[in-house]
Amino acid sequence: MRLARLLFLTISAVFVLMAVAFMPQDLCFESGGTYTFYCGTSSADCKIVTVKNFAKAQKLCLKNVCGESTDYEDFDLESFLKSVDGKVVFEEKFSDGVNYYCTADLPYSVKLNNQKINLHIAVKGNAARVASPIIFGGY
């Protein structure tokens, strides 16, 4: 009886892990090392959850995910925009970089300057943080 229960639990755990591993990709971006989820209903109540591994599985455990982001080294703006079917709507220069506010084939969005924005890219030197819809908490 004990052996049967242990076998059942082991098979169940393997099944759940395989289901998570083979689920369709449901992250906005390929992870750049760490992956951040924004959870809540607005920027005012936004909870920031950053993970280093298993971002796809972690997302399944979160409630009210309203955005995602990741960081990249050696960032190429043009090729990244092409990969998400993105177009720059407007940009802002800041002391050591540029913010690009874009439209793209991504699920989250906000209104900024009366425009629908669903991709925010902050570029500093060769590195960047990308987020959908925007970067919460600064970069």
Biggest beta sheet summary: 7 strands, antiparallel
Tally of individual helices? 3
User: What structural class results from the helix and strand content?
Assistant: alpha+beta
Global Rg: 18 Å
* Average of per-residue pLDDT values: 87
Shape: elongated
Strand order of the largest sheet: 2-1-3-9-8-5-4
Terminal residue distance: 55 Å
What amount of the residues lies in strands? Answer: 35-45%
Would you give an account of this structure?
The protein is α+β, with helices and mostly antiparallel strands. The protein is built from three helices and nine strands; from the N terminus they run αββαβαββββββ. A seven-stranded antiparallel β-sheet has the order 2-1-3-9-8-5-4. It has a two-stranded antiparallel ribbon with strand order 6-7. It is elongated and about 65 Å long. The mean pLDDT is 87.
Which properties best describe this structure?
139 residues; alpha+beta; 7-stranded antiparallel beta sheet; 3 helices; 24% helix; 37% strand
